[in-house]
Amino acid sequence: MSATVKATAQVADSARLGDGTTVWELAQIREDAVLGEQCIVGRGAYVGSGVRIGDRCKLQNHALVYEPAQLGDGVFVGPAAVFTNDHLPRAVDPDGALKRASDWEPVGVTVETGASIGARAVCVAPVRIGRWAMVAAGAVVTTDVPDHALVVGVPARRIGWVDRTGRRLEPDADGVLRSAHDHRTYVEVTLPDGTQVLEEQDA
Predict the structure, then answer these.
(1) pTM, 2 dp
(2) Which CATH class is domain 4-162?
């Protein structure tokens, strides 16, 4: 089995596509990008040079994944979502000269296994999206997102936790959060810096 690339897609010769991966019309995959097995790259999507994408990921239509982003296995990127790569974006330097590739240092977005990025969400690098997290449509992520967190808004803020299916987790009588889907249990923990994270009890 090999990858399927539609006729109007552009895939650099040095890019590597895993078995079963499909690249749809007008998508562009740049030099040295690596995609795992059984990925779907939607119409008009963009994958930057050297980007690393795991197995069974879905990039929906017009998603823009700029280098040096890294996506784990099973990541979903919704339509027209954007991963930025420049925390000091300028077209010109202070003297007015056009900036070239060597004039800035790209920074990346990291998305861990199973996480989902909603339609038209923007992830502002450098930022990490944790395992199985859910970024709502239209959110603007400017800080790291913990594992299993549900974040919404501009800037994105956590409003709850989700299980591996994306369903909201609610605490039961003893304060433990339990997935109605697979009955995994989780405990909310506050770190010394005040950050709240979710610990999976029976991974």
Answers:
(1) 0.94
(2) mainly beta
